[in-house]
Automatic annotation (TrEMBL):
GO terms for molecular function: hydrolase activity. This is Amidohydrolase. Residues 217-367 form the Amidohydrolase-related domain. It comes from the Bacteria. Pfam families: Amidohydro_2 (PF04909). It comes from Christiangramia crocea. Gene3D superfamilies: Metal-dependent hydrolases.
Length: 368
């Protein structure tokens, strides 16, 4: 019997022999280290490569670049065709200027104007503009909410994102393998009374002209979503990123339906408060959503940097937001969502964090 036991002992794996031959506390520490190594913690924030896929830089100042370097980020600077703030042409000049100087830290997305939508030469001018932007480094094209919420045709009808006139542009982008970032519609709050909104009371209370609940003659929330879905039906090969959780921030089941149906659709995560609210309501369900769709989710904040702001103040604000987002995704620390309650972070595995914070954006946008 003694000889048999000695033979069995000699065949044991080295790590198991180590546990038999070392104090219990050392063995237990080894096992805990093996478990913890599958996850990041707060100390890892500084060392992990990260990418923020939704930034708007509206200044030639470079203080934001300093923060990006310090926090080990790269980012996508997005140009919008919006009727306020810095004009589209100037936004693009700013983007190109920063890209030329800091290509290791950033890439940029261009857009196109619809001011002369009804002109016969609109299509050729638009494609020429896009080609020029790509030659200067643009990696994606943004379609903003003015298509669907502002632009009208000669008959006064709203132009939606599935309008046949846009098909030629989308076919062109699909053939060039260029990703489209779609801000289609608004959060569902936009179509709700103020007292039924989740997070948007202050904004729409101060800007009733944008509060669609007060403008029932405008396209509805589902009009916007259905038009976006129809556009994807018509262009199944198009690389598409739905900005702000595809404007489906209120319902993960509805978002999941789209991710299942449209394999080339990803979404950026730039309504993280909604994700935290989902976590308060059902943490396991929210975490499982991230695990299941880990290849389709891209970290984003929708941060704007303007010349009128105090550089140190805005840097601190952005840094703190990035830190808290990391806490939410990478740890199970206790957190609080103002007005809604406390919750624990999702503590996603390292491989999931690496995807949503860098690899998914890299794959979709084609940067090194």
């Amino acid at each position: 019997m003694s000889k048999f036991l000695n033979m069995r002992f000699n065949l044991m794996p080295f790590w198991l022999l180590l546990c038999f031959s070392t104090p219990r506390s050392v063995c237990c520490d080894y096992e805990v280290t093996q478990v913890v190594s599958s996850y990041y913690d707060m100390e890892d924030y500084q060392y992990v490569k990260k990418f923020d896929s939704h930034i708007h830089i509206n200044t030639y100042d470079t203080y934001f670049i300093d923060l990006v370097k310090k926090d080990n980020f790269k980012f996508l600077n997005i140009v919008d065709d919006r009727p306020f703030g810095l004009p589209m042409e100037e936004q693009e000049k700013v983007a190109i200027s920063h890209f030329e100087d800091f290509s290791d830290q950033m890439i940029f997305a261009t857009t196109f104007s619809v001011d002369d939508w009804e002109n016969d030469n609109w299509l050729s001018k638009t494609i020429s503009h896009l080609e020029n932007s790509f030659s200067k480094g643009a990696k994606a094209v943004k379609i903003w909410k003015n298509i669907g919420m502002d632009l009208r045709d000669a008959k006064g009808n709203f132009v939606m994102v599935d309008n046949p006139r846009l098909d030629l542009i989308l076919d062109f982008l699909s053939k060039k393998n260029i990703a489209v970032i779609g801000h289609n519609g608004e959060p569902r709050d936009c179509w709700l009374p103020l007292d039924e909104m989740t997070f948007s009371q202050n904004y729409y209370g101060s800007h009733p002209e944008y509060h669609m609940y007060l403008h029932p003659e405008f396209p509805s929330y589902w009009d916007q979503i259905n038009a976006r879905d129809n556009m994807l039906n018509k262009h199944p090969e198009l690389k598409f990123i739905g900005a702000h959780l595809g404007s489906m921030e209120w319902n993960l089941e509805e978002l999941a339906k789209r991710l299942d149906k449209y394999p080339n659709m990803d979404v950026d995560l730039s309504r993280i408060s909604n994700l935290q609210l989902h976590t308060i309501r059902n943490r396991e369900k929210t975490r499982n959503f991230f695990i299941k769709y880990q290849d389709r989710l891209i970290y984003a904040t929708d941060t704007s940097i303007n010349s009128s702001e105090n550089p140190e103040k805005i840097k601190n604000k952005i840094h703190n937001n990035w830190i808290e987002d990391w806490r939410f995704f990478a740890t199970d620390h206790k957190m609080n969502l103002k007005g809604h309650g406390s919750f624990r972070g999702l503590k996603l595995p390292k491989k999931v964090i690496d995807k949503i914070y860098f690899k998914n954006a890299q794959k979709k946008l084609g940067f090194s």
